Amino acid sequence: MYTVELEKLVKKMKLVNCTPDINIDDIVISQTDVNRPALQLAGFFDYFDSDRVQVIGNVEHAYMQKMEKDHGLGIMTKLLDYKVPCIVFCRDIEIEPGLIELATKKGVPLFKTEQTTSGFMSEVIRWLKVELAPRISIHGVLVDVYGEGVLIMGESGIGKSEAALELIKRGHRLVTDDVVEIKKVSDETLIGTAPDITRHFIELRGIGIIDVKTLFGVESVKNTQSIDLVIKLEEWNKEQEYDRLGLDEQYTEFLGNKVVCHQIPIRPGRNLAIIVESAAVNYRQKKMGYNAAQELYNRVTNNLMKK
Questions:
Q1: Are strands 224-226 and 257-266 parallel, antiparallel or unpaired?
Q2: Which residue in 66, 244, 306, 307 is the catalytic one?
Q3: pTM of the model
Q4: Which of 24, 32, 39, 131 could join 44 via S-S bond, C-beta 3.0 to 4.6 A?
């Protein structure tokens, strides 16, 4: 199970800390969803998921205002006893001093924000899904080619970094070289990032380490990119038959998600950068509804029917 520090959420969402006496350095969040404690304020705590961030909006606050003071503090005491990660009051709702004192005593931080309740919840859930997503690290190079995330894979020394460098020279952007951290943010989307220690660096055999951001400028790098296409580089084998039409898509799988994959044989004189560019543009064209291989097949079939 992955976790994210509460302090990162506070900085990301620009929350105002109403309980500064509580040390939040050791508090972590492990759930991607958030909870509006409506039933809990009514006294129903069955199936209460206390690991989620708790969000108070206008409806919950109005309900709390109608409670008798002692009853309201009793309900909040019971809620705080579950040791929730934090409680966030949206729409800049003013928090009662008594509740701040109680939360401080229980060690549960209270925050407030000017954002609307629905907007805050959707943004927090989106951000937590990325931060807490299942992840793996693989050997490869990830580049942004015409807006498509292309993951170049292959054995060490086959030319992945050299191909990436040529793509950068042609105006495309590097995401990561050598190690690609892949996160599954949904059943449809994989996001690739670079480890902090190697971000924006490329290793070129015979030259060493180069800093792409310094040499080519900030427009040549990118921190994250969805993985749309995989290109596997392999040594040319004359005994093996390679796909020459592309009618049937091949796939590779990461974390249960399938990604379109092309196997590219390597021979001296082949321009890998142009091949990668062409593969990315062709993939983009297929997404827009045009398949060149299918068009050729249709032309041949129609020609045979005429004869």
A1: unpaired
A2: 244
A3: 0.80
A4: 39
